[in-house]
UniProtKB/TrEMBL annotation:
This is Translation initiation factor eIF2B subunit epsilon. It comes from Acanthoscelides obtectus. It comes from the Eukaryota. GO terms for cellular component: cytosol; eukaryotic translation initiation factor 2B complex. Residues 472-637 form the W2 domain.
Length: 639
């Protein structure tokens, strides 16, 4: 007889796991206001289904699903799965644990320790984990480690992943130092630090004959735990996350008497977690391409169309609709001439005629009325109604009037822009949605290699501009140093070769990619050119500045990829400087073209990706029209 959600059924010596269902942050606003993270649709299947299927296939017999918010919805879903006889229900018990007072991952584990439900070693999963790993061999390996090291508390499951890999989140960049027995000596999430340098404790090199420094790893958000882990969380209330736990054990190893180990997955073994919108897109892409076999989207829930489009049951699509790289939920209705690219549309949503949606996410039960355009990383919460001929760009939109509503945020009776304030008065409002949308790269995922550097990007014709994806902190610090170096160099008339050496030194200090270097160097020079000169002669001064940095520009604009970075820098500066004269764009493009920094093909290809009708598109169009006319005249003369 199957158990109901919330009914705890023990099995002696069962292999156990803990799944924490809540993220305890606002990464998934505004969707998370109405929908629990565990039920977030991934290829029209609730996220928790992938997690439970993985645990069942991995050998787990009893799972404790810890919930703090949207508890009733999660319970209903688990009971529905049990009633329908989902695959995992045949081999695994799921007990839903509820505690609405918990405010962190650590609080959940302390609550579980107080309940005394865990017996022996167990598997610990952070929210949104998706994997195809066999867990029983990992449990046996951890058990063998504990026989030799009585203080072994946790084995972190990490996966080999090159820098720029699709499933590797730049905000979770990881650096690990381990000895020959895979005991973790140093553990640091580089994506969450502003430190320019990394200081390793000298003793790890003095006390270990062999130390491996590993930067080719990603955190799968899976850990194998000894029975001591929950008491350690209970005894240390400053352990709020798994990373806090690892850091605390490494810093206080002699006091706590506990150690941490790691196991590295290779080959077709996969582990990852949907912790933000960027990882939502990445894992959706990997599931669509069956890279996480045997986990995959159900063919009962989806049908695959051309152009990499997945459509749920009951969805109606007009013959004149244009779809590309999109996932549509169940019972979605698309009107005539609808265009949807690189986007996710959740269930029970209606898109009326002549609507354009690109690089965005549309929540459940939304209505987007005729001739509207939603683009540039926008996210519509559940139940929003976007009125006719509305333009939404780079915004979070909610159906109800928010508490911090300001004039201009209203898009309709059931559509309001949501303003979010985080971290030191940083306002993530209409202009930029900060860390949420910096991770939202809706589009084809490819590897891009340039001078042995591997960087995550979207395909050439669909890449989001830097204006829509704010750079991480290290990149901002690098950009600041470039500005300082170039300003000082121009004022003191330093040789450009010396400036290039300074820029390259900063590049390696901050570990930025070549793409980021190209973009930020050109952007820095262009920003300097905006300074108004005394006595007029604006464009003469711009030309003088660009001429001075000729050597620098030639050094960093060497190939087609760098030309694209240069054009994106021009776009970023132009779109962020509202008072900039329209002729500035034409002047800069003409200058770079005449100097052969950028080619005609690179300009026209880049122009084709711009949003039609936008102010920047209108600024660029006269120059591209001139290029096309010149080409036609040249062809006529040759005939």
């Amino acid at each position: 007889m199957f158990q109901k959600a919330g009914q705890i059924v023990h099995k002696e010596n069962a292999v156990q796991a803990i799944v924490v269902a809540d993220t305890f942050d606002d990464e998934f606003l505004p969707i998370s206001e109405e929908m629990p993270h565990a039920l977030l649709p991934v290829l029209n299947r609730p996220l928790i289904d992938y997690t439970l299927e993985f645990l069942s296939l991995g050998g787990i017999e009893e799972t404790f699903l810890f919930c703090c918010t949207h508890v009733d919805a999660v319970k209903r879903h688990i009971n529905k799965c049990i009633k329908n006889g989902e695959g995992w229900t045949l081999t695994m018990k799921v007990n839903v644990i509820v505690s609405e007072s918990c405010r962190s991952f650590g609080d959940c584990l302390r609550d579980l320790d107080a309940k005394g439900l865990l017996r022996g070693e167990f598997v610990l999963l952070e929210p949104g984990t998706v994997s195809n790993v066999q867990l029983l061999p990992l449990l046996r390996k951890h058990n063998n480690i504990t026989k030799n090291d009585k203080g072994a508390a946790m084995t972190l499951i990490l996966q080999e992943s090159g820098i720029g890999g699709i499933g590797r989140c730049p905000h979770e960049e990881l650096l690990v130092a381990a000895n020959s027995n895979n005991r973790v000596l140093f553990h640091k999430k580089l994506g969450k630090t502003k430190d320019r340098k990394i200081a390793f404790p000298l003793e790890i090199f003095l006390e270990n004959p062999s130390v491996s420094l590993l930067h080719n790893l990603k955190d799968t958000h899976i850990a194998i735990c000894s029975a001591s882990v929950l008491p350690l969380f209970s005894d240390n209330f400053d352990f709020q996350t798994k990373d806090d736990f690892v850091r605390g054990l490494l810093m206080n190893e002699e006091i706590l008497g506990s150690t941490v180990y790691c196991h590295i997955l290779k080959g077709n073994q996969y582990g990852g977690s949907i912790t933000n919108w960027r990882m939502y897109q990445a894992i959706s892409y990997e599931l669509r391409n069956k890279w996480i076999h045997p986990l995959m989207s159900s063919t009962k829930r989806n049908r695959k169309l051309k152009n990499d489009v997945y459509v749920g049951d009951g969805t109606k699509i007009s013959e004149s609709a244009g779809l590309k790289n999109a996932v549509l939920g169940t019972d979605v209705i698309l009107g005539k001439n609808v265009k949807i690219e690189n986007s996710f549309v959740f269930s029970n949503t209606k898109i009326e005629d002549d609507v354009v949606i690109t690089h965005s996410i549309i929540g459940e039960h939304c209505t987007v009325k005729s001739k509207s355009k939603i683009t540039a990383g926008s996210i519509l919460g559940n139940g929003c109604v976007v009125e006719n001929d509305t333009f939404v760009e780079n915004s979070l939109v909610v159906a109800k009037k928010p508490e911090n509503y300001e004039e201009g945020d209203r898009l309709g009776d059931r559509a309001y822009r949501l303003r979010i304030t985080v971290d030191d008065e940083e306002d993530l409002s209409i202009i930029g949605l900060g860390r949420r949308l910096s991770r939202l790269h809706i589009g084809d995922l490819t590897y891009e290699s340039d001078e042995s550097e591997c960087a995550f990007s979207v395909s050439d014709d669909e890449e989001l501009s830097y204006t829509q994806t704010p750079p991480p902190d290290d990149t901002k610090l690098f950009y600041t140093e470039v500005i300082d170096s170039l300003t000082r160099g121009f004022e003191d008339k330093l040789p450009c070769d010396n400036l290039i050496l300074e820029i390259n030194s900063s590049r390696y200090a901050y570990n930025v990619t070549l793409k980021e270097v190209n973009f930020n160097v050109v952007k820095a020079i262009l920003i300097m050119s905006l300074r108004q000169p005394e006595g007029g002669q604006y464009f003469a001064n711009v030309s003088r500045l660009l001429t001075y940095f000729t050597t620098v520009l030639k050094n960093y604009i060497r190939n087609e990829s760098a030309m694209k970075d240069c054009l994106e820098a021009i776009q970023d500066v132009a779109m962020c400087s509202e008072s900039l004269p329209d002729k500035w764009v034409t002047f800069v493009l003409q200058y770079f073209y005449n100097k052969d920094y950028i080619s005609e093909d690179s300009i026209l290809n880049w122009f084709s990706t711009l949003i039609g009708g936008s102010k920047f598109h209108r600024q660029v169009k006269p120059f591209t029209d001139w290029l096309k006319e010149a080409e036609e005249e040249s062809e006529d003369e040759s005939e």
